[in-house]
Amino acid sequence: RNFFTKRTKELKPAVQSAPGWKLFGKVPPRENLPKDSKIIQQEYEARTGRMYKPPPPSARRKNVAFEPLSTTALILEDRPANLPAKSVEEALRHRQEYDEMVAEAKKREIKEAHKRKKIMRERFKQEENIASAMVIWVNEILPNWEGMRATRRVRELWWQGLPPSVRGKVWSLAVGNELNITPELYEIFLSRAKERWKSFSETNSESEIEDAGASVADREASLELIKLDISRTFPSLYIFQKGGPYHDLLHSVLGAYTCYRPDVGYVQGMSFIAAVLILNLEEADAFIAFANLLNKPCQLAFFRVDHSMMLKYFAAFEVFFEENLPKLFLHFKSYSLTPDIYLIDWIFTLYSKSLPLDLACRVWDVFCRDGEEFLFRTGLGILRLYEDILLQMDFIHIAQFLTKLPEDITSEKLFSCIAAIQMQNSNKKWAQVFTSLMKDNKEGDKNHSPALKS
């Protein structure tokens, strides 16, 4: 108490007339003290020039110091006795404003109710379509897969999206098993991965293993990267995080593949593809589909970082980009914005990281039907969907937007844009355009080869 006694005595009293807040000090007392109701009434009469007539006792509120419970009370209730009464015009205006507020609230409520009903109707219709489609897939298509997979009816049904209950089976059949991998082979490579993990845990660092004689070309060393990437896989789902039900399963599939294909090893993005397969297939079947899927030419080119092949894919993509979206194509060209800036991430994860999971699965459905062409068609569909927005952006904002797409994207809007994309240029389809680019590249290599020049 007595520590600052001298200082406090020297302090001057607060200036009474200083308005507002005082920095690091007390708020000075206000000059205007609360006025009595009679004084307020007299001032009102002097200002307006008319006498205040209090309402009859029956109409006056018994509780003068009332607290309105809602905006309705503020609009419709009479003022307290210590305040001037509303004029007739003001009362009518307040009543009209209140009626308008009620009418607007009812309109919004009716509109929201209609919207909810529409959403429920669409959901029920979608569930009915899925249920009926599931019966067709289970009873008709899957038992006669080879004979029916290419028919027009099946392709149209396929485009609408596969029922979740048969999705994994259809993906597995569509991807195939050209590598002839068996569940027993998966177990062999899984046990090898576990041995490598054990050796990593017993050794202080990965560099020591390389010093011990591990080959540089042997990418089994990338096994350690898997642990870091699994926690980043669909973090919002929590099922692939440490302690989650699918954490060890995803770890096993990725580890087994790294030992199965040491020439490829583990590359960032693989975890998303493996995770989607695990959600729809059993462990061994997921590994078989994963290995065969990554053995496709497009995926192999990207995951092995084959620059020449990747450039061919980008060039083919730009051919159809210019054909379908010429304005946006020129806009991207003006900023020197090349497809690799946004396509690499889309292709590496097959859109499973860029799109909502249910929509990504729908993209996978048609990708399994149409092959790599649909991956680039989907990319053009995304650009078409947001064309108007992208045309207003500069380089940095376009790159940021395409790297992280809006979360409210719907399958109906996206697939209507994808359907509008024509994968044909000068009567050439995707495969023909890509093949011609490959031939041009080979001829260019021959013309520039030292042997021919000598």
Automatic annotation (TrEMBL):
One of its GO terms (molecular function) is small GTPase binding. Residues 161-371 form the Rab-GAP TBC domain. Keywords: Coiled coil. One of its GO terms (cellular component) is vacuole. Residues 88-123 form a coiled coil. SUPFAM superfamilies: Ypt/Rab-GAP domain of gyp1p. It comes from the Eukaryota. The keyword Coiled coil applies. Pfam families: RabGAP-TBC. The keyword Coiled coil applies. GO terms for biological process: vesicle-mediated transport. This is TBC12 protein.
